[in-house]
Known about the structure:
heterotrimer, A: 104 residues, mainly beta, four-stranded antiparallel sheet, three-stranded antiparallel sheet, 7 strands, B: 103 residues, mainly alpha, 4 helices, elongated
Amino acid sequence: MASKIKVKAKLSGDVAEIKSLMLHPMETGSRKDPDSGELVPAHHITQLTFTNNGKTVMVANFSTAVSKNPYFGFSFSGAKAGDTLKVSWVDNKGATDELETVLK
Amino acid sequence: MVPVRANRSGALLGVLAAVLMVTGCTTTFERRLAEAEQLRLEAAAAGAEWLQTESLLDQARDEAAQGDTDAALVLVDKARFQAEAALRQAEFEATAWQERVIK
Amino acid sequence: MKNTAAKLLLCLVPILWQQAAIAGPEDDRKAFVEYFQSRFPDVSFAEFANGIYAIDDDARRQWQDIEEFPPYEFAIEQGETLWHEALPGGAQLADCFERPADEIRPAYPRFDADRGEVVTLAVAINDCRQTHQLSALAYDSEELISITAYLAYLARGKPVAIRVPADDPGAIAAYEEGKRFYYSKRGQLNFACSDCHVTSVGLYVRADRLSASLGHTTHFPVYRSKLGGMISLHQRFSGCVRDVRAKPFALQSKEFRNLEYFLSYMGNGLEFNGPGARK
């Protein structure tokens, strides 16, 4: 199954500007199903992690305030072309997804 | 038991009661509901039905089923207003639209 | 001398008469374009394909940020996969269309003289499925919208060139029906499409700035941030009809297909730029 994460990286000097988009329903647990009237159970990413060459450069703790198909962008320094950037997330059901890309 | 007198209004009442018992008693609510629904269908056929009309009639049916005929009638009248207004709107718009065309 | 001049003038009558009869939609379109260009003289014709972003600088900046990482990319990818999926018997959706994939989106909507109705891309895709013994996809289904997103993406840059053949009274009637719909007030709020998207362009309705109808159809399907997902043009029509408190027509109903036909023709000369991203 193809990764449901997309990443774009832009290098300026040693600063990498990272943009990521990930598919995830991000259910808060407070929404009611319009047909059944039942509460839709919470199903959302809890933690998003970026590592560069194995070193953690960003950890984001997501909760119910982040909406469906999250977009997440940030910058970090100490990057160079050829570095391996890995993004991974875990959600409240224990599911995970990850993607690796090489900085250019 | 009505006193047996050859009285015309009594006879008429008797006939009326018989007719109603045979055909089923149509209340004011049911009649007005049917009229409003008919007007809603006409508005729909004209492509002009408003958003709430059908749900107002559904709510009216619910109210009547729960025994609140007065509340039901209020809703029926609202629905009827919407249907009639929609029909007038469609009639007017049949020609009025041309004024707005950019020329 | 007077006789010759009179004869010449008489000869012109049938020519001018025919011109008036043929030029209907084209006259409408030119007037449509001229209206918006005179309202917004600093906006180039091509820019109108970007809707509200052509006239609202702040919204445009936000949109450009979003376009750096377009949220509709997932839909395009899913659409590409579905487009190449084998149908029963080994056929593919492409087989139904008899033209290169990047020319499919621009071919719709079109008036089908045999069927006597406007055929849109979504309807054509479902026709194809049913020809191959598959059930039709719902017109608001993710799968169908993804396929149209993929085809829209392939067609980017192609010119909008909708045809209303002058010798096809059915096509002209469908176009005129769409035009009538567009300019007719409806609903409890008594608005016509033109009340917002012609008369009030640039003004606010609640928190949204109103876009011009010129170019309305070039960029669908559209990713809506509000919904976190894609919507089709007819879903947008349905939403607008609901917003003026009229009962919406069904997706791909005759009313909406005729409206799409009229609006698409108004956009002739612009370039396809779908899928789009909106609030």
